[in-house]
Amino acid sequence: MSAAELISPRSPRVAAAKRLARRNFRGKERRFLAEGPQAVREAVRYRGGGEGTLVELFATVEAAERYADIVADAQAAGARVHLAADEVIGEISTTVTPQGLVGVCRFLDTDFDDILAARPRLVAVLAHVRDPGNAGTVLRCADAAGADAVILTDASVDLYNPKAVRASVGSLFHLPVAVGVPVDRAVQGLKDAGVRILAADGAGEHDLDTELDHGTMGGPTAWVFGNEAWGLPEETRALADAVVRVPIHGKAESLNLATAAAVCLYASARAQRAAGGCRATAPGQ
Q1: Mean pLDDT over all residues of the chain?
Q2: Strand, helix or coil for residue 62
Q3: Which of 269, 277, 270 is nearest to 124 (CA)?
Q4: What region, left, alpha or beta, does residue 111 occupy, with left being phi > 0 and alpha being psi -120 to 50 degrees?
Q5: For residues 58 and 7, is the Cβ–Cβ distance under 8 A?
Q6: Among 2, 35, 118, 269, which one has the highest count of C-beta atoms within 10 angstroms of its own C-beta?
Q7: CA-wise closest residue to 245 among 258, 255, 233
Q8: Is the four-CA dihedral 95, 101, 106, 109 of positive or negative sign?
Q9: pTM for the whole thing?
């Protein structure tokens, strides 16, 4: 690849990639940017409906040599690979210090009805999450906890915002994500599928520790997360089967959204594994 001709900064393909930094163009083209080796590697591996997700890859000469395996896999998967000068990558990238790889990917969100049909046991619902970094980090937490799906309601940030994609650190490609679902439809659909709805809120009347002690969290569960600044609206809280707070045992005023989401999702995951016959650990082991 190092001997290949660099793509021109005036190329229509470069201009098209740059436009994907804007939401209206992402929606029109149904394409988004994945930046950095981790995101591009996961994009190459992902096959949505049997179709390759990575459409194009822009790489500096240095990055193409450093990540030769990723470039080779991208080419083998049918993606068009362009060598580009550092300045070109800088124009396409939305980061201050680009890592030399920028991929153009097809949208990969999943239809909400397909998620319900799969009978999920653990779901994260982002009901009013407006910060893309928070959205991507919660998605990463859901992936790590073994959640079956993530749902972004129509009141939440764009899944394909470059900051959200970066914050997910590749987890965007690991689990089904539905977007633009009205919160009432999301909740009712999950309830109809036999999923218990827990709204996470610092002012919740139920305590997470108490829920765990009472053994109420072993069944299918969806956690509803709201805006970090002002939480969940009362009308959204009212849709839940219970509003649960993460207990603060120290002097901290609160937890940020992603930390609270990680605590809640891992609590459910642990309870579900125990309810499913997780092997007990002997004392001292």
Answers
A1: 91
A2: helix
A3: 269
A4: beta
A5: yes
A6: 35
A7: 255
A8: negative
A9: 0.90
